[in-house]
Amino acid sequence: MGKLSNCKRMVIKLGSSTLTHESGHINIRRMEEIVKILSDFKNSGIEVIVVSSGAVSAGVARTKLGRRPGSVREKQAMAAVGQSEIMRMYDKFFSSYGHTVAQILMTKDVVEDVQRREACEDTFNTLLEMGCVPIVNENDSVSTAEIKFGGNDTLSAYVALVAKADVVLNLSDIEGLYDSDPRKNPNAKFISRVDSIDEELVKIAGGAGTERGTGGMATKIEAAKILTEAGISMFILNGHRPEVLYELFDGVPVGTYFKAKEKAVEK
Questions:
Q1: 138: part of which helix (H) or strand (E)?
Q2: What is the mean pLDDT of residues 31-39?
Q3: Banded model confidence at residue 146, pLDDT cuts 50, 70, 90
Q4: pTM of the model
Q5: Which residues contact 209 (CB under 8 A, 6 or more apart)?
């Protein structure tokens, strides 16, 4: 895979299992470490966009609800409370390294409508030109089934398409893709590289995510399919070990790499 020396604009997706403890409270140490590394990437000249989960979990912790919300209205309320908490933390940590954050809340109709998509592209480009770090999440407080992305794995793929990113780094609670669930099968084999996504791979990826998140490996494979077909590569990396980001950019073979399809050359 080598170093990502040609990467100028990256999207990093942070799931709830990466950002929060089992209690639902924000994992301050891990979040700060990730922000420090991303700030270092920015200092090196790479534009960074963060797609961040964790709002509902943070809302549950903040309101002391004591359980995962069951109804849609409860989830929307927890997202409203938790989103401000998540942004407060990002602002605090990025500011300490000299960088400014900006919040973008999206729904799927933004990328499906031509005018709204163009406006979103302009917003991303302008913020990045100004040196800001866009923090993106789905607008869970007001979204409905018709305009939902269905999770931040999918959202990160569309953000990368709209922002014309070079690569997506999808941080998970596992090292990458295996041929079966390594938490259930100790003999599961690690898959370090995927050159094409077929039905067999989709079957391998079946299964849900953690209790605090909405995704699983299946949604990550779907995101990888969207991205690679558009000519954007993706990595699944272990978000519980933030230093893996440095290792990746230093050329160490880590995570699972999904190779982007080469774009056809126009004649």
A1: strand 133-138
A2: 97
A3: low
A4: 0.90
A5: 15, 17, 215, 216, 219
